[in-house]
Each structure stands twice: as C-alpha cells, then as structure tokens.
Specification:
By secondary structure, the protein is an alpha/beta fold. The protein has helices spanning 2-18, 35-47, 89-98, 130-148, 151-167, 180-185, 197-203, 208-223, 231-239, 254-262, 386-392, 439-457, 467-476; strands at 26-31, 52-57, 69-72, 75-78, 102-104, 111-114, 119-122, 246-248, 266-268, 273-279, 282-287, 292-295, 297-300, 310-312, 322-334, 349-352, 362-370, 373-380, 393-408, 426-428. Strands 7-6-16-17-18-15-19 form a 7-stranded mixed sheet. A 5-stranded parallel sheet has the order 9-2-1-13-20. Bound molecules: flavin-adenine dinucleotide and 2-acetamido-2-deoxy-beta-D-glucopyranose (NAG) (4 copies). Residues 31-37, 57-60, 65-67, 80-83, 240, 272-273, 301-302, 307, 309, 325, 327, 404, 406-407, 430, 437-440, 442 line the site of flavin-adenine dinucleotide (FAD). Belongs to the prenylcysteine oxidase family.
C-alpha cells in the first residue's frame, strides 16, 4: 500500500518537473457534481501547477445536486438551495468568473409566526408603490423592535462574531487541515459546533421569547430543525435570514455547471458510483453500469449517509443521519380563513414555532400572478398529503413534491468524519456538513480538501517545489515503480 501511494507521488512530481502535456497527468476522480464536487475541480485547477486529469461522476442526468430548479406551471423556481449571503466570497467570486448574473432576493416580504392557532407575531406585506414599501419597512422594523427589543442586537452580535471568524477562512496561503476539527479550531469556530445554538444565544443575552419565536422560525425554515442544532449551524442559518441576500438569475445550479465547464473536467452524467476500492496502484472506481475507472486519488463530494458507496477496505464514520425536508410547490391560493385572516392581510411568508402538531415548517409566496393565483413553496418534515393541502389551500391547480435528504440532522456536540477517509488518497468533502450545510461551506470545504490533497502529494506545500528537491525525491524513490 505504502508503495502504491509513493508511486502516485512520484508520478505527480514527474509531471510537475516536465510541466507539460506530454506526460500523463495525475488522475483525480470526483464523485458528485454539486457545489462540493464542482468547487473541488475548480481549486484543483486553481492550485495545481501540474497537469491533472479530472473526471467527475454524477448519478443524475444533470449537475448541481441540491442546487436545482423546479418548473411549476411554466415558471422556474429554486427547488433546493435558494439564497446566498453577500459575504459568501467563493460564490461571489465564481459568479463573477463565470459571468453569471446575480439577482437580489426581495427582503421586504411580510412574515408571520404561526403557532398552530394564531400568529404570535406578524408584520405587514409591503404594497407595490415605493412609498408603501418604505413605510411598511419602517413600521415592520418598529414592530419587530417592539416585540424583541435588545435581543435583536444580541442576535446581530452573535451573527457578526461568527461571520468575522468565518471570513478568516478566506485568507490566501492558508494550509490545508486534515480534519474538520483542526480547520474549525484554526479560526476559533470549533466550540460553536459543540453546543446547541439555544445555549450560546442565551449567553449572548437573547430572551427566551426571541429564541422560541423568531430564532426557531428561522431554524425551521433553513434547516428544518429547531434551536437544538449547533451554534455553528444555527449561526449559518441566521446569516441566511438577513437582508442583502441574493441568488443567481436563472438558477443557482449554474455555478457548479459553470465551474465544471471552466475546469474542462470530464463529466460523466448518469454514472452512479457503487464502489471505490484501494489497490496497489491507486483506486478503482466502479460504476453501476459495470464500467470502472482507475484513479490516483478520489474525492467524495456527496453525503455518504444515504448514497450507498461501498468503500474497500471499509472505513468507519461517525453516525449521522440526514434531515429530510419535503419541499412542496403549489400553484393556487392559500386558504386565508384557515389562518383566520383575509387573503390581503395574510403574510407572504408564514413560518412556525416548534410544535409537533403543526404539519409544516413554512409556506411562502414565490410569485403572484393575480390576487387569486399565486405560486407557493412549503417546507415540512413529513410529506404534505392532498388532504392536508386542501385545508391550507382554497384552490390548487398544480402541486409538485420533492423529498430532499437535505442536510444533517444536527446533534451537538458534533463529531466529524476525517477528511482523509483511509489514510491514503480518498478524500471526503462532506465531512464538513456536520458543522453547517450550505453552498458556500461546500466550497470552503472543497478548497481545504484540495489543499491537503496537493500538499500531501507535494510533501507539505502548495507551491511548485524546487527542482532539485523533486529530483532528489525521485532519485531516492523506487523509480522502477513507474
Ligand atoms: C431544500 C433545501 C434548501 C437549502 N437552502 C439553502 C440555501 O438557501 N442556501 C445555501 O447555501 N444552502 C442551502 N441548502 C444546502 C445546500 O443545498 C447544500 O449544502 C449544498 O448544495 C451541498 O452541496 P454538495 O455538493 O456537498 O452536495 P450535493 O449538492 O448533494 O451534491 C452531491 C452530488 O453527488 C451525487 N451523487 C450522490 N451519490 C452518488 C454516487 N454514488 N455516484 C455518483 N453521484 C452521486 C448526487 O446526485 C449529487 O448531485 C439547502 C438544501 C436543501 C435541500
Ligand atoms: C485562481 O483563482 C483566482 C480567483 O478566481 C484567480 O484570480 C487566479 O488567477 C486563479 N489562478 C489560477 C492559476 O488559475
Ligand atoms: C398560540 O398563541 C395564542 C396567543 O398567544 C395562545 O392563546 C394559544 O394558546 C397558542 N396556541 C398554541 C397551540 O400554542
Ligand atoms: C428540537 O428537536 C430535537 C431533535 O429533533 C428534539 O429532540 C426536541 O424535542 C425539539 N425541541 C422542542 C422544543 O420541541
Ligand atoms: C480548458 O480548455 C481550453 C481549450 O483547450 C483552454 O484554453 C483552457 O485554458 C482550459 N482551462 C483550464 C482551466 O484548464
């Protein structure tokens, strides 16, 4: 085995030395074409001075994974990951690099927090005119401040402190870290994965009222869970609730799609990987179709919890289960009476408190065609039956249901799978998902994986090594292995 790994290194160094296409590149195989896999391909190209052959295997017939769109009665909406934060610097950079068009997420929609029988808090929907938008915004801000008081600032402080630490991850020239723990500890974020967000927010001075209502409402929308999720996941979720959020015009999936094209990686769609086996000369990736691919290194860029990939020899991962989020798209009209309101005062975004008796987490308006015809998206922890939907909706012309294995079910203190699964060259981008699951964190994690992959192949640095030291290595090595 050790010899096998050495061959990989020597081959890589020879490629570096020759730095030309005349020799074959290191064969990198990536499983998954979502943000994690696509970002890994990008950073491999971005950081490697050696020629690399990159193959990406994707089981679906399209790229993007949990970044996908759905077509509802002729209109296209985000079906999975829908929003980005302005400080999601990789995403911002990728969108610029690829020439995609950002679109801002309207943050002036009214919202209400439903407790199963009443709105415990509600703001007003903005009208169409500029004046109405501005006055509604001011009144809504006052209403939120009136109810939650200084806890709002404390919540803001919590988010800024976390964000400040997270931004340190973008410093160029950072080393790669072989475990998520070390990566997080390097920016002082590890602790936040070890305690429920509720506990940390109380320390920041948030009242029980804001935690039970506003914070819970946000956690249920963004992670389908409650304030028992970790401080880190909770913080990322709070970040996804502020102003200035944005998305890619035409669909966020275009980021991974563009990155894969940009990197010239060979993309294999409808190619489900069933096993990855370590052999003396590297890895054999086996497809469901029966085909195989020999790879020097393999990057797994999918959550292993539900995608049954056999790894030989076996590796042991900490227990983790995925939280399923049922996403239901409805064209029709919400039954305002069910919520005890008239249809013009019902909030555009209805969120909920944590109560198992409430069968949904949120329902929001995506688009308004007329006063009696709108497109909606609902999130729930269990499927919404027609019978249930008929209670919430007075008319319903189309319905689409998607069952996502959406993000981990967070149970702090979080335990992390290692980035290097087998001690050789099998890497796992989604080990990071126990800290938080998002578009941006997938890119951050992929960047770290590429750093360790390249530095382990180059014995500890990302830059092109001095020729003499490389030559020395090759002389010392068993060159006949080549
Ligand atoms: C409903 C929902 C809403 C969300 N909202 C947001 C949001 O607003 N903002 C945000 O930042 N994040 C959001 N997220 C989270 C975000 O979507 C994910 O964290 C991120 O997209 C994960 O990317 P990934 O590449 O790690 O995994 P994935 O996107 O899951 O990609 C993995 C890919 O691997 C493929 N695959 C799996 N097994 C195999 C196999 N054996 N062989 C070949 N291919 C395989 C899959 O088909 C998939 O394409 C949301 C997620 C969901 C579900
Ligand atoms: C790496 O990416 C950055 C940001 O997109 C870019 O400025 C730089 O030129 C890239 N370097 C290489 C070698 O691709
Ligand atoms: C919902 O809130 C109302 C008003 O605050 C309260 O009277 C009612 O008991 C609550 N219902 C539930 C199910 O919590
Ligand atoms: C929050 O979620 C956890 C995990 O699913 C659950 O055990 C707990 O009971 C929930 N909290 C409340 C207040 O319902
Ligand atoms: C992709 O291929 C094109 C055409 O061969 C080439 O010009 C470009 O530099 C390649 N891009 C990368 C990132 O290697």
């Amino acid at each position: 085995m050790a010899a096998g790994r050495f061959v990989v290194i020597v081959r890589f160094l020879v490629c570096l030395l020759l730095a030309c296409r005349c020799c074959y590149g290191l064969q990198v195989c990536i499983v998954g074409s979502g943000m994690g896999g696509a970002s890994a391909a990008f950073f491999l190209r971005n950081y490697s001075t050696a020629p690399l052959d990159i193959d990406i295997f994707e089981q679906n017939d399209k790229v993007g994974g949990r970044m996908a769109v759905v077509e509802l009665a002729g209109d296209t909406f985000e079906a999975g990951a829908s929003i980005l934060h302005p400080k999601n610097l990789h995403a911002v950079n990728f969108v610029n690099l690829l020439g995609l068009k950002p679109r801002s997420d309207p943050d002036d929609e009214g919202f209400g927090i439903w407790n199963g029988s009443k709105f415990v808090f509600k703001t007003a929907n903005a009208g169409d005119s500029f004046i109405s938008k501005i006055t509604t915004q001011i009144l809504n801000t006052l209403a939120v401040m009136w109810r939650y008081g200084t806890s709002l600032w404390s919540m803001q402080n919590y988010v800024s402190d976390l964000l400040e630490k997270f931004l340190l991850l973008y410093q160029e020239g950072r080393p790669g870290f072989e475990t998520v723990e070390e990566l997080l500890k390097s920016v002082d974020l590890y602790e936040s994965t070890q305690y429920p967000v509720q506990e940390l927010l109380v320390k920041y001075g948030l009242s029980n009222l804001i935690i039970d209502e506003l914070v819970t409402f946000i956690m249920r929308i963004n992670y389908g869970q409650n304030v028992s999720i970790s401080g880190m996941a909770g913080g990322v979720s709070l970040c996804g609730s502020g102003g200035d959020l944005w998305a890619v015009e035409g669909g966020n999936w275009q980021i991974p799609e563009g990155l894969i094209r940009y990197t010239n990686a060979s993309l294999h769609l409808k190619s489900r990987v069933v096993s990855v086996t370590l052999e003396d000369s590297g890895y054999i990736v086996e497809l469901e179709s029966g085909g195989t691919k020999a790879c020097d290194t393999v990057i797994l860029a999918t959550s292993l919890d539900e995608s049954k990939i056999e790894i030989n020899p076996k590796v042991k991962l900490p227990q983790r289960s995925m939280q399923h989020t049922y996403t239901t798209f409805i064209r029709g009209l919400l039954n305002a009476e069910y919520f005890g309101m008239s249809s013009d005062t019902i909030p555009d975004l209805i969120g909920t408190v944590e109560d198992p008796a409430i069968p949904f987490s949120s329902i929001n308006v995506l688009k308004e065609y007329s006063v009696s015809d709108k497109a909606y998206k609902a999130f729930s922890r269990a499927p919404l039956s027609d019978e249930l939907l008929d209670k919430f909706f007075s008319t319903r012309s189309s319905t689409i249901r998607i069952d996502w294995a959406a993000y981990p079910h967070y149970t702090p203190p979080e335990k992390f799978a290692p980035y290097i699964l087998d001690g050789h060259h099998l890497y796992y981008v989604n080990a990071f998902e126990n800290a938080a699951s998002s578009i941006e964190t997938s890119a951050v994690s992929a960047q770290n994986v590429v750093r360790i992959l390249l530095s382990r192949l180059l014995h500890g640095n990302l830059e092109q090594p001095k020729l003499s030291s490389v030559a020395g290595l090759i002389k010392d090595g068993t060159v006949e292995d080549l």
